[in-house]
Design goal:
This protein is α/β, with parallel strands linked by helices and 325 residues long. The chain folds into two domains: 245 residues, TIM Barrel (Alpha-Beta Barrel); 69 residues, Putative flavin oxidoreducatase, domain 2 (Non-ribosomal Peptide Synthetase Peptidyl Carrier Protein, Chain A, Orthogonal Bundle). The chain is 44% helix and 13% strand. The strands form two sheets. The protein has an eight-stranded parallel barrel, surrounded by six helices. The chain has a two-stranded antiparallel sheet with strand order 1-2. α7 links the parallel β8 and β9. The longest helix has 19 residues. The chain is globular and about 60 Å long.
Length: 325
C-alpha cells in the first residue's frame, strides 16, 4: 500500500493533479467529495512565498477535509526553494511537492518548472536542499524529459530517490510536447519496475475513464494515478474511476440537479475564498465540463461566461433549472 512518508494513501490512490487557476481549495473540496484521495495546491512561486505575497499565501489555504494535501512550489533558485519550503511547512500541509514539470513558457523562461529538465544536476541539488530544509515528506512531479532526444526519467528518478524524496509523479510527455500528442506511459512503467526504486511512482497523462485507469494500473504497475485536465469541471470522474476499479460498474451521469448544486457550491465557496471578480473569471473555463452532455447548452454557457456579477450567474442557473426540468 503506497505511502508518502507515513501517510497512508489507500491501495491505489487517485490524485488531483495541480492546475493553475483550476485546483484551488473550493474545487479541491468538491473533488475530494467525489473520491479524490490526495490533493495538491496550485503551483506557488517560491519568490512569492519568500516575499509574503498575498496571492501566494492565499494559494496555501486549505480546509481540514482536504487532507492528505501537499503544497506545490516551483522556482529556479536553490536557496529560494529552501526558504519557500520552510514557509510552506509552516502552513501545516502533509507534504511538500516540487514542480519540475510545468511546460508553460513564462515559467520555463525564468528557469522554473520543466526548465530543470535541462539541468539535472541543479534539479538534484535543489531537491536535496529542500529535503534537508523540512521535516515534511517531499515529493516531485516532473516529465519524461526535455524533448524526444532527452528522455532521462529513469536516471532522474533514481537520483531523486537517492536524495530522499518520498514519492514521484511522472507526466508521460516531454516538455517539448507540452500537452500535445499522446502520453507515453512506457517509461513511467520502466521507472516503476526498476528494481532500484522503492518509493511510490504515480502516472499522469490522458487518463479519462475507469477502463483507461485500470489499463494503466495493470499494464505499468503504477502505485496511483494523477487526474488533471479530465477533472476540469468534471469532479465526477473520481467517482467514475473508483466505481470501475472496485466493481467494473459505471455510475449514472450526474443529473442536472446535481450539476447545478455543485456549480452553486463552487461559486459560493470561491467567492468567500478569493472574491467575486476572480471567481467569475476563473470558473468560466469550467462551465463546459460541469454541463457536458446537456443538450443545447451552448447558449446558456454564452450567457454564463459574459456575466460580471454573481447575482446574474445565480439567476441564470435558476433559469436553467426551470427550463431543463
Amino acid at each position: 500500500m503506497p505511502k508518502i512518508g507515513n501517510i497512508d494513501l489507500g491501495s491505489f490512490p487517485l490524485i488531483l493533479a495541480p492546475m493553475e487557476d483550476v485546483t484551488d481549495s473550493p474545487f479541491r473540496v468538491i473533488c475530494k467529495h467525489y473520491g479524490a484521495d490526495v490533493l495538491v495546491t496550485e503551483f506557488i512561486a517560491a519568490e512569492g512565498l519568500i516575499r509574503d505575497a498575498e496571492k501566494s499565501n492565499n494559494k496555501m489555504r486549505f480546509e481540514p477535509q482536504e487532507r492528505p494535501l501537499g503544497i506545490q512550489i516551483f522556482g529556479e533558485n536553490v536557496e529560494s526553494m529552501m526558504k519557500a519550503a520552510e514557509v510552506a511547512e509552516a502552513a501545516s500541509p502533509d507534504f511538500i511537492d516540487l514542480n519540475f514539470g510545468c511546460p508553460v513558457r513564462k515559467i520555463v523562461m525564468k528557469g522554473g518548472g520543466a526548465a530543470l529538465l535541462q539541468d539535472i544536476p541543479k534539479m538534484i541539488r535543489m531537491t536535496d536542499a529542500v529535503v534537508k530544509s523540512t521535516r515534511l515528506p517531499v515529493t516531485v512531479k516532473t516529465r519524461l524529459g526535455w524533448d524526444e532526444n532527452h528522455k532521462d526519467i529513469v536516471d532522474i528518478a533514481e537520483r531523486l530517490q537517492d536524495v530522499g524524496i518520498s514519492a514521484l509523479a511522472i507526466h508521460g510527455r516531454t516538455r517539448a510536447q507540452l500537452y500535445s500528442g499522446e502520453a507515453d506511459w512506457t517509461l513511467i512503467g520502466e521507472v516503476k519496475n526498476n528494481p532500484k526504486m522503492h518509493i511510490p511512482v504515480f502516472g499522469n497523462g490522458d487518463v479519462t475513464s475507469g477502463p483507461v485507469a485500470e489499463d494503466m494500473k495493470n499494464r505499468y504497475g503504477v502505485d496511483g494515478i494523477l487526474i488533471g485536465r479530465a477533472a476540469t469541471g468534471n469532479p465526477w470522474i473520481f467517482r467514475e474511476i473508483k466505481s470501475w476499479l472496485n466493481n467494473h460498474t459505471v455510475p449514472a451521469e450526474p443529473s442536472v440537479a446535481e450539476r447545478l448544486s455543485v456549480v452553486r457550491q463552487h461559486l459560493e465557496s470561491s467567492i468567500l475564498y478569493k472574491g467575486e471578480r476572480a471567481t467569475l473569471f476563473e470558473i468560466r473555463k469550467l462551465y463546459s465540463g460541469y454541463f457536458r452532455g446537456i443538450p443545447n447548452f451552448k447558449s446558456w454557457r454564452m450567457k454564463l461566461v459574459t456575466q460580471d456579477s454573481t447575482e446574474e450567474v445565480f439567476r441564470i442557473l435558476s433559469e436553467i433549472e426551470q427550463v431543463v426540468f
